[in-house]
Amino acid sequence: MTGVGSILTLAQLFGFSVAEVLANIVNYVYYILFGAILASIVISFIPRYPSSGFFQAVYDAVRAIVNPILGPIRSVIPPLRIGGFGLDLSPIIAIIGLNIASGLLLIVINQFIRPITG
Q1: Closest CA to 91 of 24, 55, 53, 38
Q2: 48-51 — which CB contacts under 8 Å span 24+ positions?
Q3: What is the three-class DSSP state of 18?
Q4: Which of 49, 70, 112, 114 could staple 19 via S-S, CB 3.0–4.6 A?
Q5: Residue 30 in contact with residue 102, Cβ under 8 Å?
Q6: DSSP code per residue over 39-69
Q7: Stronger pLDDT, 117 or 59, i.e. the higher one
Q8: What's the number of domains the chain is made of?
Q9: For residues 37 and 95, what is the distance between their CA atoms, to the nearest angstrom?
Q10: Domain range holding 52?
Q11: What is the Cα–Cα distance from 18 to 109, expressed in whole angstroms?
């Protein structure tokens, strides 16, 4: 047996149900994106000096993950000007949206996929 059927059977062979595997994938993606958004918040407070190649690589990696998520939000909701600085609300909105999306996916997995696959 090849294709998706063999993967599902293999997952069940090792004691994992398909619903558990899908729920774990949703959770892992959630925590990776949540961590990347938090890292981008922390990095935004650190001045960017080109002296560290490692820091630049981390910065580029975090931005590559986060910009596709935060960019559309920033285009709709610009940073608020408070005094002499701008408050970017896009990470907060992204985290709330990510939390809602992951919760809905977990509900779908538990309500519809778990009864079918066991």
Answers
A1: 38
A2: none
A3: helix
A4: 114
A5: yes
A6: HHHHHHTS---TT-HHHHHHHHHHHHHHHHH
A7: 59
A8: 1
A9: 8
A10: 17-117
A11: 9
Tokens of 33: 């994106």
Q: Which residue has the tokens 């909105």?
A: 93
The answer as to whether 9 is a domain residue is no
CA atoms within 13 A on the CB side of 25: 9
39 and 68 Cβ atoms separated by less than 8 Å: no
Answer whether residue 2 is part of any domain.
Answer: no
Strand pairing category for 85-87 and 80-82 = antiparallel
> Which tens digit of pLDDT belongs to each residue from 84-95?
888 899 999 999
Tokens matching residue 94:
């992204």
Is residue 74 situated within a structural domain?
yes
In a domain, 12, yes or no: no
Distance CA 23, CA 18 (A): 9
Please write the tens of the pLDDT for every residue from 17-34. 888 889 999 999 999 999
Give residue 93's identity as a one-letter amino acid code: I
Q: What pTM was computed for the model?
A: 0.80
